[in-house]
């Protein structure tokens, strides 16, 4: 039982640490006010701000688990899909709920196309995921720039405004509801299908999975398709939140945050078993971290460096070598105390260079 | 290049048709090594691309100065690509180089503008920052066995964050000694073109180009003839086998990352020597360009295959394509998109070539096209 939830230890610790820091800074951290019939305050703001990040880190978790690497083009993909959405909505003439939904579906299709692009490279051509997605990172913003016609078009209509902020009569901001809905769908899919099992077995050992009748190529491809849909949803939310489409700055450094969320969530960045819950908590933790740093008056530019150091420390703590030695030390301590139980120290396979074991 | 299987199949010894590379008992080596094959392909593509450029825009591309300007303006990129090649051959990747280069330019600019500024000091700072990043990332990747991409991605953001917190606004170096160095040019009197008035203008190159040539020669020689250089190929080819052969795998990886950091530092110094200003946007996006150049230059992503001489070739190919797009007057957005497409094409090409050479089908050359035995004696 304890082992089952040990992966949540890290995100929860960081979360508690951040809450303590925030409470020291100001005691009224958890206060919630009601403005125009909706909740505002630090906690709703974090939930609101992290909505794209949560969605993207769910996709990132799946990609990481199956392909043993990360997708770094997510921000760019979201920019492209949202550019298509904005183009559709603005050209539709009258904006109704139907056009919004149709635009969203079209942007999802675009996300699938981008997923096919990345997935083909990773699964068929066996390129490391990060290098494969680098291609999109390289040209993607220019594509989005050309789609939206260089103008950073403004979405000035009631419906997208409501999607971005609050629907009258509902006390919770709409992005939070959409995120919750998305999480629900993912949970239902993972509970009712074999996706989790397949993804994990492919991530742990692709050749073993193949011998057991799972096609690793298909599964990796599928995770990239799911990632494409995730980017479409995230782009949809982001562009409605902002009210306009800025192809240069929309979700600019989010891949860093999403990878960090996956890592904080206790998932191995080398693939294998994964925990969606951990990633979601990790994503909220990162949003909280961002806001805490801003609250502590750290410069926005320095936040980038701070997070980089943070991710390095996390990686060192979670690295196989550190785990191996800490396991040894723990072992010694236990034998010194005189505990009888045999403690297994497993050396996690050092397959960290992003290559697949054949 | 032609794939002529017939010319070899008519040989009297059919068992000698496809000979393993690394088995000395099998007789003369008739198979081209992967590194050389990819390098030759890169060189051929470069020549074709340049010919195409000359045909499309003869007025500009026929001038020698155009060719030298590619070097003059992009020396930092070539230097970075060179270091990246070493890391890619060892089987890793480094995407922090662009940001490290930018950080170096800003640090040098701030230092040179301060009262204590001096050119040797700036050079020392450049090398120190480069080596520091190389040491940090190399240690984490080699000895703690963390994925290189994650570490260098955070290295990228670390350098970017440090760069912006160091100084936000553009800073122009006005130190006289440095301005002299920035404006220094080397004339080549026997090469040049006549302008419309009939005045002969000699070609000029920047000091950075000399650094590029020296570094390319050094690293190529080092990778080809030194023990550590060969270890780099061995580790990139197959880590397990290299370990069993008694090669210090971790040390070799560590070393490759230090070389890469060092070249990023030098590239930063060359960058500020070319532009003379520190700016937040300096060298932004160079890591992607460098990766694309290295891949186009025939360095395999999976490691173990590559020729450092391919780095300048690949960079020049990419630059010529960008110049062609610019000359054709197409939107600048297409540069990024077409660079991305090229990267895609070359990755797919590499993948196809490598799988063709894998087991079923061996790519062989007719005997007369084969390099002599000594030349192909390089491992891999």
TrEMBL record, chain A:
Q: Where in the cell is it found?
A: Cell membrane
How this chain sits in the membrane, per its record, is: Multi-pass membrane protein
Q: Keyword annotations for this protein? A: Cell membrane, Membrane, Transmembrane, Transmembrane helix
Task: Classify the source by domain of life.
Answer: Bacteria
MF (Gene Ontology): transmembrane transporter activity
Q: Where are the transmembrane segments?
A: 6-24, 45-66, 72-90, 97-117, 129-147, 176-199, 219-239, 259-284, 304-326
What GO terms fall under cellular component here? plasma membrane
The answer to whether UniProt assigns keyword S-adenosyl-L-methionine to this entry is no
Tell me if Metal-binding is a UniProt keyword of this record: no
* Identification of the protein by name: ABC transporter permease
The scientific name of the source species is Marispirochaeta aestuarii
TrEMBL record, chain B:
Any one Pfam family here would be: BPD_transp_2
Q: Which UniProt keywords apply?
A: Cell membrane, Membrane, Transmembrane, Transmembrane helix
State the membrane topology: Multi-pass membrane protein
Transmembrane portions of the chain: 37-57, 77-110, 122-144, 205-223, 254-273, 334-356
Primary localization class, coarse? membrane
> What does UniProt give as GO cellular component?
plasma membrane
Any GO MF annotation of the entry? transmembrane transporter activity
Q: State whether keyword NAD applies.
A: no
Query: Where is it localised?
Result: Cell membrane
PANTHER family listed in its UniProt record? ABC TRANSPORTER PERMEASE PROTEIN YPHD-RELATED-RELATED, INNER MEMBRANE ABC TRANSPORTER PERMEASE PROTEIN YJFF
Name of the protein: Sugar ABC transporter permease YjfF
Organism annotation: Marispirochaeta aestuarii
